[in-house]
Design brief:
The complex is a heterodimer of chains A (353) and B (383). Chain A has 353 residues and is an alpha+beta fold. Chain A has eleven helices and ten strands. Chain B is of the alpha+beta class and 383 residues long. Chain B has three domains: 114 residues, Orthogonal Bundle (Butyryl-Coa Dehydrogenase, subunit A, domain 1), CATH 1.10.540.10; 107 residues, Butyryl-CoA Dehydrogenase, subunit A, domain 2, CATH 2.40.110; 127 residues, Butyryl-CoA Dehydrogenase, subunit A, domain 3 (Up-down Bundle), CATH 1.20.140.10. Chain B contains twelve helices and eight strands. In chain B, the strands form two sheets. In chain B, strands 1-4-5-8 form a four-stranded mixed sheet, covered by helices on one side. In chain B, strands 2-3-7-6 form a four-stranded antiparallel sheet, with no helix packed on it. In chain B, a hairpin with a 2-residue loop joins β2 and β3. The radius of gyration of chain B is 21 Å and the shape is globular. The chains are: A alpha+beta (353), B alpha+beta (383). Chains A and B meet through α6, α7, α8, α10 and α11 of A and α4, α8, α9, α10 and α12 of B.
Chain lengths: 353, 383
């Protein structure tokens, strides 16, 4: 880890730690957009981290950008940070101007998937994108679609789509977006080489892996603190061996999630190796499930209340493990690839990953 | 707040990958014709001839100084050799303990004469060690050791019993952990380590057969065994500090998550190139966990290289790694429709039988699951 990475982590940790208090997180669950937090992130150069300096961005590497994403998740920052990075990567890669402000991404999947058709003097976009993160707050949506087998990015203004609100378990917006609009020639461009739906999904999985690692490390902190303060039978419950063993496993899963998220981030920066990112997201998902369960058990009833902050993190863990591919989706990809590679290649594939 | 840090591991380099290719070429030749059952034994499989060949290749004592027969390679290069051996199911058991922890302890705490005498022989793959730690009344509670070395004229007289000593019947030497002073308040002081020649009069080695009927471990009884002063390893009374410093080496390596890798490979072979979704998910999940553990374990190799003390991280790797090994057996059992049978001609069926019968030991040897969780809890500041 370089010195600039450490500085970035400290800066992000401070920024999100100060902004994301219980009031802000509670208000966000009720639908309040944290405008001041977003302004601070933009001011600090975080929101355009993946936009090249030549295009007016911060031009960070993927690993560094994910360090900031992890810090945001450590404080459950209720903003589309990861989504804005993904969108700006798509948009800048396609040579389109990246708008200032929160962005999000949609891609073609499911019934009535968004479809782009070329017209005489532009494009027509129709269809429904499902569970688009923070669509209601975005200043534009980057939609990735195929036209004649080639990937295109459309940058769509909020005036041009309708929203059916939805949310994940953590009350983060996951809206359905209905497109039925005309787009100009300058709103659509071929995606950068390699930026297809599959790569977007993998990059998204690397983002969610970093977020899981960040939120789980916070869950560990919160749980260590609580069990050292809570007294039962005349001593802090952290002194009981049964509790200590559970906390040891929580810490082990948190450490594994950190390692798996690092592994996925490095792969995303290097070559978007799908199998490595798949392994990272699978391991992070497993850590999220096991870790959240231990944390709640250690907290007892207080951790089950809305009053306590634990749920802001565990509800995100329960949501993020399913987004951009759950454990079984990615394990399937890995398992099939290994089987078809055959016994003689399984180990060498693990090593080169 | 306390977090367990696993720094990014040192990257693979051209030299590690050249080495990897060389190891694979060696294994292709040396492992030809080895049965799946033999490969399943992993680092429990002993073959002195194989160990000598590895020594001749310069693959034992890789990081040690050249003046003691070592090769001054990096920790990561050593890691490459270890993981390739384990992934192939190579019979590395004869020299494993000596390479992993005994000779490193001698290099670290031994006298110049001890270094010169023992370490080059270990590096040649000719000299094997066992670990004299557990006793009938002192298992996880290592500090309760009752075997006693009493100072006598010119040396020590040792009485007591060690148990569960793997390979004591074939090892040339033992590093013995025992009490040298009974009058201490602190249980962790007054203990020392000795290098014991297994041919010393006064030692009786008796086999203890494991539940599969195999002879791996032993009871070792010392009856007025005389040890010269030159057998003392390190400082008198420093045994606790010395022995705990071995444990990061003992617990963090790929031997803690790759010892069932042969089962995984045979499972893939059995299921074929096109697997159903349920099986693919089970197998893919195992690989995802293996890849993460490998990263964590290599991260520790980097920390050891930098002279850090990753004892808590090592406990994490061993606990997660041995749990994965045990879970892997159960997961595979449920997706392949066969019954385990050690006598089967089918490699998977035979390896499954071997692995089921050995799996309980994974979370016992080298520190039980409960001890490891305690160490992690202490690392978190809870004790």
């Amino acid at each position: 880890m370089s010195e600039t990475t450490d500085l970035l982590r400290d800066m992000a940790e401070r920024l999100f730690g100060q902004a994301c208090d219980k009031n802000l997180l509670g208000a966000a669950e009720k639908g309040v957009w944290p405008a001041a937090l977003w302004a601070q992130m933009a001011e600090a150069g975080l929101t355009n981290a993946l936009v090249p300096e030549s295009a007016g961005g911060s031009g960070l590497g993927v690993c560094d950008a994910l360090v900031a994403v992890r810090a945001a998740a450590r404080h459950a920052a209720p903003v589309p940070f990861a989504e804005t990075l993904l969108a700006s990567w798509l948009v800048a890669g396609a040579g389109l101007a990246v708008p200032a402000g929160p962005l999000t991404i949609a891609h073609a999947s499911g019934a009535q998937a968004p479809m782009l058709t070329q017209r005489a003097n532009g494009w027509r976009l129709t269809g429904r994108a499902r569970r688009v993160p923070y669509a209601r707050s975005a200043c534009a949506i980057a939609v990735l679609m195929e036209v004649d087998g080639k990937a295109f990015v459309a940058l769509v203004d909020p005036k041009l789509y309708a929203i059916e609100p939805g949310h994940n378990l953590a009350m983060e917006p996951r809206d359905d977006v209905i497109f039925d609009c005309d787009l100009g020639v300058r709103d659509v461009a071929p995606a950068a080489s390699g930026a297809d739906a599959r790569t977007l999904r993998a990059f998204g999985a690397a983002m969610r892996s970093a977020q899981i690692a960040g939120a789980l490390s916070r869950v560990l902190d919160i749980t260590l603190q609580y069990t050292q303060e809570r007294v039962q039978f005349g001593k802090p419950i952290s002194k009981f061996q049964a509790i200590q063993h559970n906390l040891a496993m929580l810490a082990a899963h948190s450490a594994a999630a950190n390692a798996a998220a690092d592994m996925a981030a490095e792969a995303a920066e290097r070559d978007m190796n799908e199998l490595v990112i798949a392994a990272g997201k699978t391991r992070c998902g497993d850590a999220a499930s096991a870790g959240a369960a231990i944390a709640h058990q250690a907290h007892g009833a207080i951790g089950f209340t809305h009053e306590h902050i634990l749920h802001f993190f565990t509800k995100r863990l329960w949501s993020w493990r399913d987004e951009f591919g759950k454990e079984s989706d990615w394990a399937l990809v890995i398992g099939r690839a290994a089987a078809s590679a055959g016994r003689a290649k399984i180990w060498s594939d693990i090593v080169t990953a | 707040m306390t977090q367990l840090n696993f720094a990014p591991p040192p990257p693979n380099t051209e030299s590690t990958e050249t080495l990897r290719a060389k190891v694979r070429a060696f294994l292709d030749i040396e492992m030809a014709g080895m049965s799946a059952h033999e490969r399943a034994a992993s680092w429990g499989g002993r073959n002195p001839e194989f160990s000598r060949k590895m020594g001749a290749q310069g693959w034992i004592g890789m990081t040690w100084p050249k003046q003691y027969g070592g090769h001054e390679r990096s920790a990561l290069e050593r890691y490459v050799v270890l993981e390739e051996m384990l992934a192939a199911g190579a019979p590395v058991g004869a020299h494993w303990v000596a390479d992993r922890q005994s000779a490193p302890s001698i290099l670290r705490f031994g006298t110049e004469a001890q270094r010169q005498f023992f370490v080059p022989k270990v590096a040649k793959g000719e000299c094997y060690f066992c670990i004299g730690m557990s006793e009938p009344d002192s298992g996880s509670d290592l500090a309760a050791t009752r075997t006693r070395a009493q100072a006598v004229d010119g040396g020590f007289k040792v009485n007591g019993t060690k148990i569960w000593t793997s390979g004591a019947h074939v090892a040339h030497y033992m590093i013995l952990f025992c009490r040298t002073d009974s009058n201490t308040e602190d249980r962790h002081s007054g203990v020392s380590q000795f290098i014991v020649d297994m041919k010393t009069p006064g030692i009786a080695v008796r086999p203890i057969y494991d539940l599969s009927g195999q002879h791996h471990f032993n009871e070792v009884v010392f009856d007025d065994m005389f040890l010269p002063e030159s057998a003392l390893l390190g400082k008198l009374g420093d045994g606790w500090k010395q022995v705990t410093s071995e444990l990061s080496y003992e617990r963090s390596g790929p031997d803690r998550f790759l010892s069932t890798f042969t089962l995984l490979l045979e499972g893939f072979q059995m299921l074929g190139r096109t697997v159903d979704d349920r099986s693919a998910i089970v197998l893919g999940r195992i690989i995802a966990h293996l890849m993460t553990l490998r990263r964590m374990s290599r991260s520790i190799a980097g920390m050891l290289q930098r002279g850090e003390d990753p004892a808590v991280q090592a406990a994490v790797v061993k606990e997660l790694g041995t749990s994965l090994e045990q879970d892997m057996v159960e997961a595979l059992r449920l997706i392949v429709d066969v019954e385990p049978d050690g006598g089967s001609d089918n490699p998977y069926v035979a390896v499954l039988a071997h692995t089921i019968l050995h799996a309980p030991s994974f979370s016992l040897r080298g520190g039980t699951r409960e001890i490891l969780r305690g160490i992690i809890a202490r690392g978190l500041g809870l004790r």
